[in-house]
Amino acid sequence: AQTVTQSQPEMSVQEAETVTLSCTYDTSESNYYLFWYKQPPSRQMILVIRQEAYKQQNATENRFSVNFQKAAKSFSLKISDSQLGDTAMYFCAFRGMNRDDKIIFGKGTRLHILP
Amino acid sequence: DSGVTQTPKHLITATGQRVTLRCSPRSGDLSVYWYQQSLDQGLQFLIQYYNGEERAKGNILERFSAQQFPDLHSELNLSSLELGDSALYFCASSPRGGIVDEQFFGPGTRLTVL
Predict the structure, then answer these.
(1) CB < 8 Å to A108, chain B
(2) B65-105: per-residue pLDDT in tens?
(3) Which of A43, A58, A101, B46 could be joined to A96 by an S-S link, Cβ 3.0–4.6 Å?
(4) Which A residues, 55 through 74, put their C-beta within 8 Å of a C-beta on chain B?
C-alpha cells in the first residue's frame, strides 16, 4: 500500500526567507501524481503544485517549486521569499494512475511565517 | 472562493444520531469527492462520484453513505454517530473526475458529536 510521510510536524521561518518542506512516499508503481496542498487557518484546502512522476522536470508555480527525486521517492516543496500569507498547514499527497485509485495524504507540516 | 458550497458550516449532534451533509459542486463539474479530516486520522478520502455514479471508494465506514443526485449535488449521510466521527468533512469537485483534474475544495462542515 502507498504511504506518504511528512517528517516535520511544525516549522517556523522569518518572512522573506526560503523554506523547504519534506515529503517521502512509498509505492511500487512507476507512474503516479504527487501534490502539495495548503490549508490556511480558514481551513479551505488549496492545491499549491502537482508533479507527474513521468515528467523529470520539477514543477514550479511562482514562488513554489518542488524537488522531485523519483529514485529516492522524495518530493519536497520549496517556498521562496516566504510571505505571511504562506502560514498554513501543508499536505503532501500521492495518487496512482488507475481511475479508482484514491488520493493519500501525509499528516501535514504546520508552517509559521514570522514577521 | 472555490465555487464549491457545503452546508451546514457547523453541526453539533449527539451519539447515535444521523446527519446529512450537503455539497454543491462548481458549475460544470461532474465529479464530487468526500473527505474526512480528524486529529487522529488526518485527512482521508471517503468516496468519489462521477455524474451520479460511484467511481472510487476509500476509507468510508459502513455507517456512512453518499449519493450524487441528477443535479450533481451530493449528500453524505452519517448514521449511528460516535464520538470519533467528530471531524471536518470536506467536499471537493472536479470537471471530469480524472486523475489529472484539479480538485476544488469546499469550506468544509465541522461535525461535533457529543
Answers:
(1) 42-43
(2) 999 999 999 999 999 999 999 999 999 999 988 877 889 99
(3) A101
(4) none
Distances (CA, A) of A42 to A98, B54, B106, B107: 32, 29, 11, 8
Please report residues of A whose CB lies closer than 8 A to that of B92. 45
Chain A residue with minimal CA distance to B36? Answer: A105
The pLDDT of residue B4: 96
Shortest distance between the Cα of A7 and any Cα of chain B, in A, equals: 14
pLDDT of residue A99 exceeding 80, the answer is no
Average pLDDT value for residue range A19-47: 93
Looking at chain A, how many residues does it have? 115
pLDDT at B36: 96
With CA atoms as reference, the chain B residue closest to A105 would be B43
Give chain A positions within 8 Å (CB) of B60.
none
Per residue in A70-89, pLDDT (tens digit) is 999 999 999 999 999 999 99
Nine-digit cell at A96? 496512482
d(CA A64, CA A23): 15
A95 reaches B (C-beta below 8 A)? yes
Cα separation, B33 vs B66, whole angstroms? 10
User: Residues with Cβ < 8 Å from B100, sequence gap 6 or more?
Assistant: A33, A52
CA–CA dist B90, B76 (Å, integer): 10
